[in-house]
Amino acid sequence: MSSTAAAVLMQRLGLSEDELLQVLGADPLSVVGGDLDDKPQLPILLALTEEAAERVQGDALKRWLRTAGPAGRPIDHLLAQDFTAFEDSLVTLHARGFVVRARR
C-alpha cells in the first residue's frame, strides 16, 4: 500500500497528519515511504469510505466524521481503532444520510 493511498484517506476524511498516524498505528517514516503493507486497515477504510464519499456532496463526509451521531463521533471510533464501530456509523450514514440537528 502506498503513501498515496494514505494521502487519499487523509484528504477524503479531512484527517490531520497526527490523526492519520494514530488511525493507521504507523510512524511518519512508514507513511512517507509507503511501507504500509502490514496495515490492512488502510485499504479497508478506503473501500468503506469510497461509496460514502461518492454519495455525499462536497465536504459533508469531513463534517460527518466530526459530528456526533447515534453512536458518538466517527472520528473517535477511528482514533480508538474501533473499525467495527466506524463501519456501523457508515451504515447509519448510508441509511439516514447526514442529519444535522440544531442544538437546544
Report on the structure:
The protein is mainly alpha-helical and 104 residues long. It has one domain (3-96). The protein contains seven helices and no strands. Helix 1 (3-13) crosses helix 4 and helix 4 packs parallel to helix 7 (83-96).
Largest β-sheet summary: none
Task: Work out the number of β strands.
Answer: 0
Radius of gyration: 14 Å
Q: Which geometry do the CA atoms define?
A: globular
Q: Tell me the number of structural domains.
A: 1
N-to-C order of helices and strands: HHHHHHH
The assigned structural class equals mainly alpha
Helix amount, in percent? 55-70%
SS field, number of helical segments: 7
Q: Let me know the average pLDDT.
A: 86
End-to-end Cα distance: 45 Å
Summarize the entry for a quick read:
With 104 residues, the protein is mostly helical. It contains 7 helices and no strands.
Topology record:
Elements: H1 3-13, H2 17-24, H3 28-33, H4 41-55, H5 60-65, H6 74-79, H7 83-96
Helix pairs in contact: 1-4, 4-7
Features:
104 residues; mainly alpha; single chain; 7 helices; 0% strand
